[in-house]
What does this fold into?
Amino acid sequence: MDTPRIADAVRGLRHVFLHDMVLMASIGVYPREHQARQRVRINVDLAVEDEAARAALSRSGVGRDSLERVVDYEALAEKVRTIVGAGHIQLVETLAERIAEVALTDSRVVLSRVRVEKLDAFADVTSAGVEVERRRR
It folds into this structure.
């Protein structure tokens, strides 16, 4: 996946991501898709306020080495797994939107870009899916 640049020291943003997460999902509008789970690949890219970049710009030093000061990508991965496992979803668009919205619940996340791909939709296509982007208002 060719992801546009998100990290930006001047704007005080870091890029937090989950790439190529492959899960089994109950997803799709067709009857055959209601009967069997299928592989989906999920990519999540977040623009996150970066206190260390802001500190470096102001010459006040780097922040402390603590999980509380960053977006925890392990917790994000678990949220994605929970959304996928919560039951049947008709559209890949709906799945992508749900993931993007849950990522924005962390007040430090200013942008959430999510790509969801069905990997077995067509025999002659690597993947089919959607990418959405949501910004904090």
Remarks:
- The helical segments are 31-35, 51-58, 73-85, 92-103.
- The chain is about 30% helix and 30% strand.
- Residues 103 and 118 are 21 Å apart (CA to CA).
- The chain has one domain: 13-135.
